[in-house]
Design goal:
This protein is an alpha/beta fold and about 425 residues long. A hairpin with a 2-residue loop joins strand 3 and strand 4. The two termini are about 20 Å apart. It has 12 helices and 19 strands. The chain folds into 2 domains: about 325 residues, Adenylosuccinate Synthetase, Chain A, domain 3 (Alpha-Beta Complex), CATH 3.90.170.10; about 100 residues, Adenylosuccinate Synthetase, subunit A, domain 2 (Orthogonal Bundle). The strands form 5 sheets. A 10-stranded mixed beta sheet has the order 9-7-5-2-10-1-11-15-18-19, with helices on both faces. Strands 14-16-17 form a 3-stranded mixed beta sheet.
Length: about 425
């Protein structure tokens, strides 16, 4: 009986998709536990590129059952588009993909308000993807959301949807000076979605608990990263959910004791998308080189990612927060082009202590890194299949991460393909 949680240990985009795909070779179920179509998990298989937003990475393995958990805010339009793209590549989801009946639905008004509200903030914008994630979670916690199970109760759905659209229209007209939404259009779309989604809807909480008790092997897949956690990240420049370990429990319904192993995924350097503090960011030539070599553009939005060096202070914060038992270091191959590599080991100008990740984003903005510099290895490593084959400098870099984080590195990605993964277990 094995349940493993795969946690993003930075600001997202760490390479969780590749790790989920690789590890799902030997599991029965992969379950996504939070976020929505704002995620972008990229997997490369035999020169084919797959970008998944809502559907868990396990779908690329024909023997794996994939689950979209109750903690996800579910966008039917994005889901059907993703199913269509997978079908075009001869990947069929029927009878091995389930969606929680408790998951909240993203409606067009969520996406419209998301885009308008961030635009309205101007210089104080968060930099959301505009996919309706935040407004859908607001409705969820405001107890006005609509869950997938509600689609099959027409009277309740009609009443709730009408109320929500009236509320959205008030905001659209009075604050954003936009045209109102038409209830009949939204109602018709909701009915069509209910019919098309019906084969996928399931009590996934009971399904996952029963599978766990039956000894099935389960991977829990998060979106974004722990530094974007709404409680423990760089608030307010965060996502609207809990990518950390707490979200894995509340977003699936599995009990905490079910999770036997937690893998934190970090890049060998660091990136973030959108606004917010980033102590190790390199905004000039070095940052541009990292972006170019690492192809650092958002899988969901296409936006260029901000790039910088690895931040050990942030890594330790995430490891403590999630009880991470091992690390996966991705994109080590990207650093092969650099003469020297820097790592932030502490913060200057931090009132919370040089080894602590501040709760206040304004304080984090003022923090300056204490650097440790390593020589680069200046040689290709994408053909390495064992740790011993890596250059001395690369091995020393990995060992430094292990020692300073007091956490073993059990997986090292040395290329984009699913088989370019060094396993140390």
């Amino acid at each position: 009986m094995s349940v493993t949680a795969i946690i993003g240990a930075q600001w997202g985009d760490e390479g969780k998709g590749k790790l989920v795909d690789s590890l799902s070779e030997n599991v029965d179920i992969v379950a996504r536990y939070q976020g929505g179509a704002n995620a972008g998990h990229t997997v490369h298989i035999k020169n084919k590129k797959f970008v998944l937003h809502l559907i868990p990475g396990g779908i690329l393995r024909p023997h794996v059952v994939s689950v979209i958990g109750n903690g996800v805010v579910f966008d039917p339009e994005a889901f059907f588009e993703e199913v269509k793209i997978l079908k075009e590549q001869n990947i069929f989801v029927s009878e091995r993909l389930f969606i929680s009946d408790r998951a909240h639905v993203i409606f067009p008004y969520h996406k419209l308000i998301d885009r308008l509200s961030d635009k309205h903030l101007k210089n104080n914008k968060i930099g959301t993807t505009g996919r309706g994630i935040g407004p859908a979670y607001v409705d969820k916690f405001n107890r006005s959301g609509i869950r997938l199970i509600d689609l099959y109760n027409p009277d309740h759905l009609k009443s709730r949807l009408r109320k929500n659209i009236n509320q959205a229209n008030k905001l659209l007209i009075e604050v954003y000076h936009e045209k109102p939404l038409v209830f009949e259009t939204e109602w018709e779309t909701a009915q069509k979605n209910a019919e098309r989604l019906h084969p996928f809807i399931k009590d996934t909480t009971s399904f996952l608990i029963d599978a766990w008790k039956d000894g099935k092997s389960i991977l829990l897949e998060g979106a974004q990263g722990s530094l974007l956690d709404v409680d423990f990240g760089s608030y307010p420049y965060v996502t609207s959910s809990n990518p950390s370990i707490g979200g894995a429990v509340t977003g699936t319904g599995l009990p905490p004791q079910a999770i036997t192993h937690t893998i934190g995924v970090i890049k060998a350097y660091m990136t973030r998308v959108g606004e917010g503090p980033f102590p190790t960011e390199e905004s000039l030539t070095l940052g541009e080189n990292l972006r170019s070599v690492g192809n650092e553009y958002g899988a969901t939005t296409g936006r260029p990612r901000r790039c910088g060096w690895l931040d050990i202070v942030a890594a330790k914060h995430v490891i403590r927060l999630n009880g991470i038992s091992s690390l996966a270091v991705t994109k080590l191959d990207v650093l092969s082009d650099f003469d020297e590599i820097r790592v932030c080991t502490a913060y200057k100008n931090s009132s919370s202590g040089s080894d602590n990740f501040p709760a206040d984003s304004q304080l984090l903005e003022k923090c300056r890194p204490v650097w440790e510099t390593f020589p680069g290895w200046k040689s290709a490593i994408n053909m390495c299949t064992r740790f011993e084959q890596l250059p001395d400098e690369a091995r020393k870099y990995i060992s430094f991460i292990e020692n300073t984080c007091d956490t073993p590195v059990t997986y090292i990605s040395v290329g984009v393909e699913r088989n370019q993964l060094i396993r140390r277990i």
